[in-house]
């Protein structure tokens, strides 16, 4: 072998030797790690009775971390007029309803529960609620019965009505029991609203096609109404229980009378009157507590207040009392709530709420980004002092300061015309109470 090849061979030998040492060290480290894991498992087996599997432990941790990341954060909202926030649902609230006696608020959510809240706790620190479970489904709409001893829900997957009876316990609480059978499936399109007449004589359901069904309380269809709106966006029963109204793609609100005989037997549904004046589709409407006023909001960017205390059988049409502007209605769907005395109009678009004085047509309050999702329901309580909204996992309640201001204006005007001292004292008392409420809320205008 030539001497010139010797350095190359020596270098190759050294390289091979180094590679062998590295491989030996790697094998040794693997052997030591295996010994440590074996001893760790045996120690764990002595302590817990079963070997701690690291791979299983990591698999258990990952789902927990994923659930924690996917769980939506509760939307935070503060405002000087926020009276309370009701937070017990674990899913988004889709609908709510105040009982006719003013004692309860029912809410339903996609967490498969309906909660019944005590209204007397609204201004307290703790808000009590009772839970009714909706088995194998969840409710998207809820309505109290007139006697407040039952409520009905619309099932999201079952596409039908279910009735729950409220059975009072000895401790003052309630047990909720669903009736054995749900109502039969009749609608062919998604539902837009349900309602129970305050007389207890009928139930209304309306779907997004052009169908409104009138049912008796046993689940039998009494009448079918074709609204001819192209599609329905909303329908409701009037508080007086005489009328059913609907709105949709057409620029009007149509009203029917549901007629019963003197003995309480159903007779017919007849066309009563229409609210005509909008130039585009109507998003929503609402009745005042005495059914003598109605309000509507349209895609034409306006809201309107109507006098519906008319003799429609003599062809008398409702009177338009006020038109206000609400530009948001021209670009997105809106909801509307009318205070029981028709003095205040609440409009919701997206996640914001705006309050208007219906006498002057002026906006008086605005609440921006009230919920983490679009507002799904909006309603005044039966006293008109509070406005409730929902759109995520909470119900938020606001003091109705425009309502107090309207009372102040009305009482001041009536005092000037008061003819006797007793009337003057009664009006002065109501005026003082409204002014004190505004002062306590920091909303009294100087």
What is the number of strand segments? 28
- In the CATH hierarchy, the third-tier topology of the largest domain is known as Methylamine Dehydrogenase, Chain H
Which class do the helix and strand fractions yield? alpha+beta
Give the DSSP E fraction (strand runs of 2 or more residues).
35-45%
Question: From the 3D coordinates, which CATH architecture of the largest domain would you assign?
Answer: 7 Propeller
Name the average pLDDT.
Answer: 87
Termini Cα gap: 114 Å
How many domains make up the coordinates? 2
Q: Helix share of residues?
A: 10-25%
Protein name: Transducin beta-like protein 2
WD repeats: 86-118, 184-218, 275-307
Coiled coil: 408-444
Keywords: Coiled coil, Isopeptide bond, Phosphoprotein, Repeat, Signal, Ubl conjugation, WD repeat
Task: Kindly summarize this structure in a few lines.
WD repeats lie at residues 86-118, 184-218, 275-307. With 446 residues, the protein is α+β, with helices and mostly antiparallel strands.
């Amino acid at each position: 072998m030539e001497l010139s090849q010797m350095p190359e061979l020596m270098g190759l030998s050294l390289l091979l030797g180094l590679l062998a040492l590295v491989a030996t060290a790697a094998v040794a480290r693997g052997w030591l790690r295996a010994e440590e894991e074996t001893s760790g498992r045996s120690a764990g087996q002595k302590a817990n009775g079963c070997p701690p599997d690291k791979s299983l432990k990591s698999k258990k941790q990952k789902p927990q971390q994923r659930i924690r990341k996917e769980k939506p954060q509760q939307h935070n909202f503060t405002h000087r007029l926020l009276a309370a926030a009701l937070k017990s649902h674990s899913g988004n609230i889709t609908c709510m309803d105040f009982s006719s006696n003013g004692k309860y608020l029912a809410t339903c959510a996609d967490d498969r529960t309906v909660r019944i809240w005590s209204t007397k706790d609204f201004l307290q620190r703790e808000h009590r609620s009772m839970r009714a479970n909706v088995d194998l489904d969840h409710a998207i709409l809820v309505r109290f019965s007139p006697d407040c001893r039952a409520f009905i829900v619309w099932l999201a997957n079952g596409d039908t009505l279910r009735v729950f009876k409220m059975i009072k316990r000895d401790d003052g609480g309630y047990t909720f029991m669903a009736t054995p059978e749900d109502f039969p499936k009749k609608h062919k399109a998604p539902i837009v609203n349900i309602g129970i007449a305050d007389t207890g004589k009928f139930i209304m359901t309306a779907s997004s096609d052009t169908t409104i069904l009138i049912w008796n309380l046993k689940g039998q269809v009494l009448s079918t109404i074709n609204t001819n709106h192209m599609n329905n966006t909303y329908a409701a029963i009037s508080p007086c229980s005489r009328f059913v109204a609907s709105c949709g793609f057409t620029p009007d609100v149509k009203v029917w009378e549901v007629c019963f005989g003197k003995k309480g037997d159903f007779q017919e549904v007849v066309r009563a009157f229409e609210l005509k004046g909008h130039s585009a589709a109507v998003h929503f409407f609402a009745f005042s507590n005495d059914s003598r006023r109605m309000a509507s909001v349209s895609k034409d960017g306006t809201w309107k207040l109507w006098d519906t205390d008319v003799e429609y059988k003599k062809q008398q049409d409702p009177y338009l009392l006020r038109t206000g502007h609400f530009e948001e209605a021209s670009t997105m769907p809106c909801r509307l709530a009318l205070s029981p005395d028709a003095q205040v109009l609440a409009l919701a678009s997206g996640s914001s709420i705006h309050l208007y004085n219906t006498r002057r047509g002026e906006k008086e309050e605005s609440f921006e980004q009230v919920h983490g999702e679009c507002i799904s329901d909006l309603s005044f309580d039966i006293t008109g002092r509070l406005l409730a909204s929902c759109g995520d996992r909470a119900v938020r309640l606001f003091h109705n300061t425009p309502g107090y201001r309207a009372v102040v204006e009305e009482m001041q005007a009536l005092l000037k015309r008061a003819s006797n001292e007793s009337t003057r004292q009664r009006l002065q008392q109501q005026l003082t109470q409204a002014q004190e409420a505004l002062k306590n809320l920091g909303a009294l205008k100087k």
